[in-house]
Recover the amino acids of this structure.
């Protein structure tokens, strides 16, 4: 899998494609590949579709922001909610 | 020591203020604005993004921002050698015990029933007290305090834990004696840590093993309870009602069945909340201990899961 750092050597268009690909792979992995896809709810699919453009927009701010979004979206997909500290 | 606070979606300011009030020169970086990850030696975390701790090559300590550590232990990327500690705070224990005592007294003296009677202008003096024997599942700092306070108030109590204990002050049962424990009590309080052994423990099989009409108080974690099973158990009479503070999904979705259950009282995960000012001294003490290679306070056993 291409790393985020490797992606910076590509032309902008390619980079966007690589970032998207990276995100998609992470997305699929987080759902244990094909078996996980079966349990996707429509709201999660919508979240996924919305997050794509958000991630592309964040590219201009650099890799760090992308990773932040990626992490937080992964947590969202894993069902973690913001919970009381106790 | 350089510290990073990682608590997405939570306000880190009270923590920063509390930490600085004790140690003004503490270097604190806050996620996601962590610019020097190589300097970070300790992290304070609550529901951190999984995998992020591998960004800190010099990390020496992971501290939960609460008593629970299930949010940490579900991250498989944390190296095995890295110590994990949690908060054990008297104030948090006090709040939790008060909440459970409130739940037990409310059930015992049926305040909900009298509130309904008042609305209907009904004067019903029958059966003013429900006899109660309380079983507490999980006898750590929180569970033990609940047992002590209820015992002091004159209630019969019993505890259940997952490890054998000698000379325990109260009647004690292990998980192998769960059925026997459930037959002894009619109010069950769940204060277990969330581990692979305890997840979904409050299911239909559990409810069927209870004395008929047992009352449930769950103040541990939402994932202990199979929520549909509770509704079915109440409908079928195995359980008389429940007081719940934690849920599988929080905030509880607007369309969740619990909102409309007359026999289930819900509160929005407020039984006890970590107070940064109360928690910071032990966090700083652990920073000092990890630097000096001393034994840590409130260490987490990863095998046990708490």
């Amino acid at each position: 899998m291409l790393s985020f750092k490797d992606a910076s050597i590509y032309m902008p268009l390619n980079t966007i494609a690589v970032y998207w690909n990276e995100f998609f792979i992470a997305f699929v992995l987080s759902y244990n590949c094909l078996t996980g896809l079966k349990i996707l709810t429509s709201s999660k699919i919508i979240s996924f579709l919305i997050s794509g453009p958000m991630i592309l927009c964040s590219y201009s701010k650099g890799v760090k922001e992308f990773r932040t979004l990626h992490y937080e979206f992964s947590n969202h997909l894993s069902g973690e909610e913001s919970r009381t500290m106790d | 020591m350089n510290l990073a606070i990682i608590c997405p979606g939570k306000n880190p300011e009270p923590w920063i203020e509390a930490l600085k009030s004790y140690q003004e020169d503490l270097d604190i970086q806050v996620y996601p604005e962590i610019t020097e990850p190589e300097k970070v030696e300790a992290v304070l975390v609550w529901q951190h993004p999984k995998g992020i701790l591998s960004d800190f090559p010099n990390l020496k300590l992971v501290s939960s921002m609460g008593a629970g550590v299930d949010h940490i232990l579900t991250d498989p990327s944390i190296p095995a050698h890295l110590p994990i500690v949690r908060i054990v705070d008297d104030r948090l224990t006090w709040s939790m015990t008060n909440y459970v005592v409130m739940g037990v007294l409310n059930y015992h003296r049926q305040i909900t029933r009298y509130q309904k009677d008042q609305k209907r202008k009904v004067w019903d003096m029958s059966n003013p007290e429900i006899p109660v024997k309380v079983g507490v599942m999980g006898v750590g700092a929180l569970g033990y305090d609940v047992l002590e306070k209820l015992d002091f108030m004159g209630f019969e109590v019993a505890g259940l834990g997952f490890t054998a204990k000698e000379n325990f002050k109260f009647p004690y049962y292990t998980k192998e004696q769960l059925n026997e424990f459930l037959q002894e009590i009619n109010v069950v309080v769940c204060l277990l840590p969330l581990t692979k052994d305890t997840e979904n423990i409050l299911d239909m099989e559990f409810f069927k093993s209870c004395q008929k009409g047992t009352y449930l108080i769950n103040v541990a974690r939402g994932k202990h309870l199979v929520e549909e099973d509770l509704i079915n158990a109440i409908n079928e009479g195995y359980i008389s009602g429940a007081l719940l503070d934690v849920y599988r999904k929080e905030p509880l979705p607007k369309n969740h069945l619990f909102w409309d259950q007359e026999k289930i009282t819900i509160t929005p995960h407020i039984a006890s909340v970590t107070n940064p000012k109360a928690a910071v001294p032990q966090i700083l003490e652990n920073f000092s201990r990890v630097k000096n290679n001393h034994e840590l306070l409130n260490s987490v056993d990863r095998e046990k899961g708490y």
